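Quick one, probably user error.
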């Protein structure tokens, strides 16, 4: 953090000559009327308005690639289609399992119904968990929502049939009901489980048509943080790389893949692009980044402000921004939001994310400069406080006396210590709210050598 004082002449008092005992390193200067501005410096990163990475929901090949690098797309635009025989196979297996339960193919032993119920409940819980994981990987938000609704309905239906089954088992054990009721309830529960597997597998197959979740510019592949450029990793994820799943539970567990993450917030920063392996016919694994969509219609900044300064930063605070990539240029910015949750700074201290809108930049001649890219490093100079027409003294004039601030005022050639109330604090100047009047002579250097009554 660095604080800077911007000095604006407000009265001829600034022209008062210095005096003092140069042999002792003591300098006296008149208090000034000035504008004192307090600026907090914070490291920052340029951010895009939004960013979303679209991944393959299953292993396979890129059957068709409908966009190219740098192309602008709208939300819902089809980016690519993935051909995944394994996903189709899992759907077929799930449908077969569902058909078996609907025709009464499920057989439950006539003994130890409680144990059979426990096994069925365990299998159902595992299948629902696998289905939930698969649905979470579906990149299209609408398709994911539909699948989630179907799964929730299946869970509710299973809970009802599960309760019926348990009650039937209890009645059977007590001699109050027959085995047929228990069998029908257990079979119904298995049918619900199988239908949930079908719904998840269908959602995964539908998600093989990859669509853009936001409006923006296409960058094929992912970023350095999320894309794999290792061909052996892709080969290992192809069908046959792991054990196949059988039955409804297996189909549900393998039905989905790693879906599209939600678009990042304005404060999210784009990583460096990796060399794209995405071409028609390219092998893709489950979760492979096929395209990243970046919305640069409005750029912003994410700055990290130290905890010692964060209470001074509020929405609307103006800032000047300097970018490493554009030396000599200054960009206008304004604070849009200040995060409430803390983070750890690069130096191990506590800091807070501050999000700013970023405007155009100009060089020292006033000419408009290049538009930055997401991820570029910057420094934000936040103008947190300004005191206009304030009585100001050099920052070096203020000393601590216990828990209070004080200055040495020279009256009649004699030094007298006086307590002061400090306002806006700059690097060079400090605004004095009370205790010193404009024009009074104050010790500005060597204050630590002064004693009461000293002749100056």
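Nope, works fine. Designed sequence:
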């Amino acid at each position: 953090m660095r604080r800077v004082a911007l000095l604006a002449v407000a009265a001829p008092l600034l022209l008062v000559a210095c005096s003092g005992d140069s042999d002792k390193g003591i300098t006296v200067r008149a208090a000034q009327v000035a504008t004192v501005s307090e600026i907090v410096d914070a490291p920052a990163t340029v951010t895009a308005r939004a960013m979303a990475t679209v991944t393959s929901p299953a292993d396979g090949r890129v059957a068709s690639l409908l966009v190219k690098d740098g192309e602008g797309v709208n939300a819902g635009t089809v980016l690519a289609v993935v051909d995944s025989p394994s996903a189709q196979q899992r759907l077929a297996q799930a449908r077969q399992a569902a058909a078996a339960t609907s025709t009464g193919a499920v057989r439950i032993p006539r003994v130890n119904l409680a144990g059979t119920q426990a096994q069925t409940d365990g299998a159902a819980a595992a299948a629902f968990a696998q289905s939930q994981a698969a649905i979470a990987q579906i990149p299209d938000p609408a398709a994911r929502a539909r699948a989630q609704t179907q799964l929730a309905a299946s869970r509710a239906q299973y809970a009802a049939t599960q309760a019926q089954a348990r009650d039937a088992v209890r009645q059977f054990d007590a001699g109050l009901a027959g085995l047929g009721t228990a069998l029908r309830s257990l079979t119904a529960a298995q049918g619900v489980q199988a239908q949930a597997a079908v719904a998840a597998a269908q959602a995964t197959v539908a998600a093989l048509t990859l669509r853009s979740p936001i409006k923006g510019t296409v960058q094929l592949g992912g970023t350095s943080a999320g894309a794999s450029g290792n061909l052996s990793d892709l080969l290992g994820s192809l069908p046959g790389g792991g054990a196949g799943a059988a039955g409804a539970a297996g189909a549900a567990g393998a039905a989905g893949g790693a879906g599209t993450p939600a678009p990042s917030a304005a404060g999210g920063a784009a990583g460096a692009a990796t060399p794209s392996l995405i071409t028609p016919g390219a092998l893709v694994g489950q979760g492979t980044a096929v395209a990243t969509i970046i919305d640069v219609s409005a750029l912003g900044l994410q700055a990290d402000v130290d905890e010692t300064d964060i209470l001074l930063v509020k929405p609307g605070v103006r800032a000047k921004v300097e970018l490493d990539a554009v030396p000599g240029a200054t960009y206008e910015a304004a604070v849009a939001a200040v995060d409430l949750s803390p983070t750890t700074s690069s130096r191990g201290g506590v800091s807070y994310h501050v999000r700013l809108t970023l405007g155009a930049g100009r060089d020292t001649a006033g000419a408009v400069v290049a538009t930055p890219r997401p991820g570029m490093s910057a420094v934000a100079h936040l103008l947190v406080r300004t005191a206009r027409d304030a009585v100001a003294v050099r920052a070096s004039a203020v000393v601590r006396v216990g828990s209070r601030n004080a200055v040495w005022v020279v009256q009649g050639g004699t030094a007298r210590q006086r307590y002061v109330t400090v306002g806006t604090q700059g690097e060079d100047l400090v605004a004095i709210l009370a205790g010193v009047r404009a024009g009074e002579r104050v010790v500005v250097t060597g204050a630590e050598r002064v004693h009461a009554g000293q002749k100056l």
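The CA atoms of residues 112 and 169 lie 9 Å apart.
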